[in-house]
# Entry
Amino acid sequence: MDKYYIDFDFERPLYIQISKHIKCLIEKNDIKEGEKLPSIRKLSSFLDVNKDTIIKAYNKLQTEGFAVQKIGSGTYAKKRDINLKFKNEYSKMFKNLSPDLLKDYIDFTGETACSTYFPVKIFKKVLNEVLDKYGAEAFVYKEGLGFEGLRKSISYCFWDEKLDKDDILIVSGAQQGIDIASKALINVNDNIIVERPTYIGALSVFRWRRANIFEVEIKNDGIDINALEEILKKNRIKCFYTMSYFQNPTGFSYSLEKKIKILELAQKYDFYIIEDDYLSELIYDDKIEYCSFKSLDTNDRVIYIKSFSKIFLPGIRLGYLVSPKKFKENMQKSKINTDISTSSLMQRALDLYINKGLWDEHVNFLNKIYYDKYTYMIKMINHNIKDYVEFYEPGGGFNIYFKILNDDFDSVKLFYECRRRKVLITPGVLFYKNSSDGNKFFRLGFSQLDDNKIEEGIKIIADILKC
# Structure
């Protein structure tokens, strides 16, 4: 225990000094990777501080990636993320790749519809019609919840008027919706659950809120219910973040049975569900039926988030959020504090676009286009790389997730080898709280590529993996 001794400076918070001291011990390897840290009671007694101080110190270590809590066992030391340097490089690479440079690559990293399919001429007519009707007022932001006409259209066209327009908050895309929900709901050191793996953007938001993040493995019909309930029994959970359809990155969708069970658990254990309804418009498999968590929610437990940007055009940042009544006011305040308003002109244009039936036409068009791309992608995978990977056919969406079977490759090495040959993939290390858990996984998105590029890119990946 002697190595844990600290000569305290009582002008600074004690828990910060404790966490900093333990971090130094871990970095110097005086505390080994996976070594169990002293119990809260034992360390508080040794340092002569109260137990809450040790709890706060351990929580800080966990938030910063230097410790991991194992339920019923204790807290264990963890080396700082070995892939942190790579994550930073990956992010900078895409910031520095101009559209002209990106044209030289076969880009499997896309998560949104290709801009080629955006109905520019039609949308231009809609914008002109809005400007003719509203004039300068089209640019004026008035309503805190968003343009009333758009909220009415969402209720009528997407929810059969089962939602009140005043329960709908217009946001600037799903990412902002997650951020708003987190600010309204999650406080520092609140416990939340995410799928394992999960969406990078959501992980970033929850880390920024300094929440304690628990992961539950996701299967092809949704998360492991038994593992979920074990966490719920032992921890006070604030919320569970989920992507109900074609989860990013795995492509998995929830079964009706699991949705109902999770809603029952939410009521039993008093937590809320943040449902990110991701790409549910793009269903290619007739056996998959659409039914959101929110549509099954009888206890007002679901915060529902929907983006229009993913399948329409990313530059038109629009989506909406439906909050439980308990958090409705906080959500609105959070939205105002985030950016005050979402483009009034675009809200009016989207409202008119939906009311003219153009949204349904566009979605039907995209389904035909992407069904063909998806089918071709699966064909190329089966012809070229199925001996080197395991993968799941999601039956919808834009992405396919792979496990590498070749022991000589991890996802970071594969990324660099692919990039050298002008192919871009998304390594699995980006989708896990502990990035090393994603070492054998990678994601390919086909939304931005034509058939020739898909075939060429898959053959290059196969050539690399067979080495």
Notes: The chain has three domains: 2-77, 84-110+361-465, 125-356.
